[in-house]
Specification:
mainly beta, four-stranded antiparallel β-sheet, 122 residues, elongated
C-alpha cells in the first residue's frame, strides 16, 4: 500500500483557518488524483473535495466558497485550505490517492491516509 502522510489538522475557533496537506511517500511516478473525505462522530464518511491531475476540482456543496483544494506539480501532494471554518466542519479528515498512470509498476493501488482531526469550536 502506498503510504500517505497527512498533516495540518488541529483546533480552531469558528471563522478560523487550517491547511491540510497530504503527501504520497511511496511510488511517486504514478501521478495521483487526490481527494479529501471527512467523518464526524456517529456519521458516515463523506466526500469533501477532489482534484484531478488535469487540475479540475470539485467540492461538496457545504464547503464551496470556503475550502480550496490544490496539488503540487509533481502530482503527489494535495492541500486543502479551509477558511471560514464552522463547528459543523469538525471531523476526522482523510486523504485518498488514486494513481493515474496505472500501467506503471506499483501504480495500481488506491490508498487512504490514517486521518487527521479537525476541531472547530463555536
Amino acid at each position: 500500500r502506498v503510504p500517505l502522510v497527512e498533516s495540518g489538522g488541529g483546533s480552531v475557533q469558528a471563522g478560523g483557518s487550517l491547511r491540510l496537506s497530504c503527501v504520497v511517500t511511496g511510488y511517486t511516478d504514478c501521478y495521483y488524483d487526490m481527494s479529501w473525505y471527512r467523518q464526524a462522530p456517529g456519521k458516515e464518511r463523506e466526500f469533501v473535495s477532489g482534484i484531478s491531475t488535469d487540475g479540475s476540482t470539485n467540492y461538496t456543496d457545504s464547503v464551496k466558497g470556503r475550502f480550496t483544494i490544490s496539488q503540487d506539480n509533481a502530482k503527489i501532494t494535495a492541500y486543502l485550505q479551509m477558511d471560514s471554518l464552522k463547528p459543523d466542519d469538525t471531523a476526522m479528515y482523510y486523504c485518498k490517492s488514486v494513481p493515474v498512470r496505472r500501467h506503471l509498476s506499483g501504480c495500481d493501488v488506491d490508498a487512504w491516509g490514517q486521518g487527521i482531526q479537525v476541531t472547530v469550536s463555536s
